[in-house]
Design brief:
- Keywords: Membrane, Transmembrane, Transmembrane helix.
- The chain is mainly alpha-helical.
- It has a domain of 44 residues.
- 62% of the residues lie in helices and 0% in strands.
- It has 2 helices and no strands.
């Protein structure tokens, strides 16, 4: 044991190491239990709504010629920057 380290410091470090090891073991057990529960039920997440595979319906709006000209002018102005 190094001379400059007190017994109290060694006990604190040992306690932290043991606490960390216990926490890692607890998390692994919890993860394994959740994985087994999902495999048994066949439904991965009950709390989430069904997710759609495609996006929302695409919408389009026809612009008037004046709106098209205003948009083209805006694009030209922003393109100059």
């Amino acid at each position: 044991m190094p001379e400059h380290v007190s017994i109290l410091h060694l006990m604190v470090v040992a306690g932290l190491v043991l606490t960390t090891a216990a926490w890692v073991i607890f998390l692994r057990i919890l993860h394994r239990a959740r994985r087994e529960a999902v495999q048994r039920s066949g439904h991965p997440l009950h709390a989430l709504a069904h997710q759609r595979l495609d996006g929302p319906h695409r919408e389009a709006v026809e612009l008037t010629p004046a709106e098209q000209d205003a948009f083209a002018g805006l694009v030209r102005r922003l393109g100059d920057r």
